[in-house]
């Protein structure tokens, strides 16, 4: 049976458009992963995405993961609270300085603390600090109910939407 969903594409075109999150959680630290380890992004994708129908990468073999993390335009960022892994985002840029937030999420234990807003603010700031002309993301009605609200609250604008039928 097919399920109808809506996919939204959002963008922000300058750092001045960013509306930073007001997260009051102390002891958060963001880390750019330098080590090219396929197991970390694979774990994060599987565990954070399991409740939100993230399926496209589940069929990837190790070579596909290695190809992703070996791309010089790819970056993996992890967020920690004290020493606990909270969440992550992936940035993939192109030669025109468009930065896609390819995947983004936090573990359920950290919901409701404005940490998602903090992480998204960080992703956008890092993108513009690295020369982005545009930062974009896509989300859908299968993602966390606050995902679209968070993107819009940070100053991102919907530039396209589409209806899809999925299995």
Keywords:
167 residues, alpha+beta, seven-stranded mixed sheet
Protein architecture, described:
The chain is α+β, with helices and mostly antiparallel strands and 167 residues long. The chain has one domain: Aminopeptidase. Helix content is 25%, strand content 35%. The protein contains four helices and seven strands. It has a seven-stranded mixed β-sheet, sandwiched between helices. It is globular, with a radius of gyration of 15 Å. The mean pLDDT is 96.
Summary?
By secondary structure, this protein is of the alpha+beta class.
Draw up the topology in text.
Layout (H helix, E strand, L loop, with lengths): L2 E10 L15 E5 L6 H11 L12 H9 L3 E8 L2 E10 L4 E9 L8 H15 L4 E7 L6 H7 L3 E10 L1
Specify the helix fraction band.
25-40%
Distance between the termini: 6 Å
What does the overall shape look like?
globular
* CATH structural fold name: Aminopeptidase
Tally the structural domains.
Answer: 1
According to CATH, what is the class? Alpha Beta
Radius of gyration: 15 Å
